[in-house]
Specification:
This protein has two domains: 158 residues, Nuclear Transport Factor 2, Chain: A (Roll); 140 residues, Nuclear Transport Factor 2, Chain: A, CATH 3.10.450.50. By secondary structure, it is of the alpha+beta class. A hairpin with a 3-residue loop joins strand 1 and strand 2. Helix 2 runs antiparallel to helix 3.
Length: 327
């Protein structure tokens, strides 16, 4: 007897997934009537800069139309889109240029405006009822010239072993929806171990049983930007965070999973005890959130697309930091 985790999507899940694609394609084609059709009247979105917004269809149209004024050529490929029950999760890179003008926006630079997102959506009666934007707003603000730029983010050199998202970067029809032959419950259990033993327990010794030896980490969720490879690289990435916040832990999480793909929105908390991005420790507690997507291969995490609200961390270290415009 097949378990639920390796069956095909239910009719409701397939419909929700198709609606999510229509929603994203509406952004790509400036089709605001479709947005009004698929977004519920009581629609709420949670943004790392704007917080919780009671938007409804018109608020979502205003948000997206406003962003398109800043970046008229911006668009979203859809490399990965999974559905489970009343939820969907999507890996959603943004590509475009900052060429437009809007009230209270900085002057356009003409430069590229590329950043990654991992979003989770809740559906009600077939329409989008709630959405959690997972992105690092600091990356967007740096590209808009609002925040100081960091060194260039690394690009995947293409070593003959491309990651899943590298292969499918511009996929639109259909997005990768997870491997139906992979046990969803087992994939979720691996990610649960990652959160409990590594992110909460700080157990580097547990990595070998949870993570693939060739793991790839995309720290800003852009498919073609690889920050860390292998378990040693992953341990370095974690160590950077733990040295800054030695008691860093996850206080809340929610997952959406399908086959070999798991997405998690989470809330982290820790105490500033070491330098972070060149800023001195404050000794104060801080919290921040993010949404992360994981790909499981042979029972271990093989790929991570991370979105972390770095801007919120910097603002709590120095309240003078933290202004700008967002998508």
């Amino acid at each position: 007897m097949l378990t639920r985790s390796i069956q095909t999507l239910s009719e409701r899940e397939s419909a929700n997934r198709a609606t999510a694609v229509r929603f994203i394609e509406a952004f790509n084609h400036d089709d605001w009537d479709v947005v009004r059709e698929v977004v519920a009247d009581g629609f709420v979105f949670h943004h790392p800069i704007g917080g919780t917004v009671q938007a409804g269809p018109e608020g979502m149209v205003a948000t997206w139309a406003g962003f398109k004024r800043l970046s008229p050529d911006s668009w979203h490929p859809i490399p990965i889109l999974i559905a489970e029950g009343d939820h969907a999760a999507v890996l959603l890179p943004t590509y475009g240029h900052f060429t437009g003008h809007a009230d209270q926006a900085p002057p356009p630079t003409g430069g590229r405006l590329d950043y990654g997102m991992v979003n989770i959506v809740r559906f009600k009666a077939g329409r989008l009822a709630e959405m959690w934007f997972g992105m690092d707003p600091l990356v967007e603000l740096q590209q808009m010239g609002v925040a100081p730029a960091l060194p260039a983010r690394p690009r995947d050199p293409g070593d003959g072993h491309p990651s899943l998202a590298d292969r499918d970067e511009i996929t639109i029809d259909p997005p990768y929806g997870g491997d139906p032959s992979v046990d969803t419950a087992a994939s979720r259990a691996v990610v649960d171990r990652w959160f409990e033993e590594v992110l909460q327990g700080h157990r580097v010794d547990a990595l070998a049983g949870i993570v693939s030896p060739d793991v790839v980490v995309h720290p800003t969720a852009m498919p073609d930007e690889v920050g860390y490879r292998t378990i040693a690289g992953l341990a370095e990435w974690l160590g950077e965070q733990w040295r800054a916040f030695p008691d860093l832990t996850i206080v809340d999480r929610f997952t959406v999973a399908s086959g070999d793909i798991v997405a998690a929105r989470w809330q982290a908390r820790g105490t500033s005890r070491g330098p972070f991005m060149g800023m001195a420790p404050t000794g104060h507690s801080l919290d921040y959130s993010g949404v992360t997507m994981y790909r499981i291969e042979d029972g271990r995490i093989a790929e991570i697309w991370e979105t972390r609200n770095t801007l919120a961390i910097l603002h709590q270290l120095d309240p003078r930091i933290g202004s700008g415009h967002h998508h």
